[in-house]
Amino acid sequence: MRRSYRVKKPKEVFPPCDVKGCEKEGSCRAPKDRTLKEYYHFCPEHAAEYNKNWDYYKDMSVDDIERTIREDTVWQRPTWAFGKKAKIDDPLGILGAAKGVGQAAPKMDKETEQAMHILGLTPPLTKDKIKRKYRELVKQYHPDKTGGDKEAEERFRRVVEAYKKLSGE
Ligand SMILES: [Zn+2]
Question: Ligand 1 centroid vs 159 CA: distance in angstroms?
Fold first, then answer.
């Protein structure tokens, strides 16, 4: 009695994609230059990008091409589809910060925070915003206007101080 069995073909193992930072399998080969003697291993996405830019590489030496694909110079061009895709992953949250999504307020020291509170300001601060608010409060608390009211005088003083702090004057 013959037993039939299938020999399980071992899964082909590919080297990792040659593009820096790409952890996919380099299942596609792409020639390093026009002599077609040496090849890169790219994941399908990067192979497509590489092919698309074949003309761009034509005047580059293999060394230059190598540098380009390993140093994020060309591969990270924002106009490239895969570049966008890579950015969406954004493991470090850099993109979020750049787009203002979930952007944390810049770290402030206590004095700055206090000064903002006195002027009734909230981040983000702009010079214009600070100045506008300052003028408004100075008018409001100016001793000439409040007839020597001690509390107003104190507030006025604090507003001036806060403004100096925030405007860096
Ligand atoms: Zn890749």
Answer: 56
